[in-house]
Amino acid sequence: MGMFPPKRTVQTWSEVGKQVETFITARLMEVGYTVLIPVDGTQRYDLVIEDANGQFWRVQCKKAKWREGSVCFAVGKRMWGSMKEAYNYHDSVDYFAVYSPDTKKVYLVPVSIVGTNTCQLRVEPLSPQYRSRDRFRWAQDYEL
Hints:
Blueprint: H1 13-30, E1 34-36, E2 47-50, E3 56-63, E4 65-67, E5 70-74, E6 77-80, E7 83-86, E8 95-100, E9 105-110, E10 118-122
């Protein structure tokens, strides 16, 4: 790590969240979106993006986990200390922006296509026993 080692190697949940938001913000800006960041932090969304038509979209940032050839992220629960408060984002965000450290990519997923618990985006093809491509959400379809 050069001359100056990091202060610590274990990150808090808050630090991980800020790091994920930073990766996502950089990618959104790289592909041409204007990115707005709320100041007070009381919203249920992390960012707002403006598209080429001047339309604004609320975005919730998520970090994906790798599971058996897919990137997976939670969409229906939020942790408050040791208690879990269950809810979904369907009325409060328009998109999930998902960063996968394993693929090093960002995916922009409409909230309208996800369920209320988790979402899987398939990266690797399945074995031949799974013939139908239609039953999976392919990560490449949502990649920024």
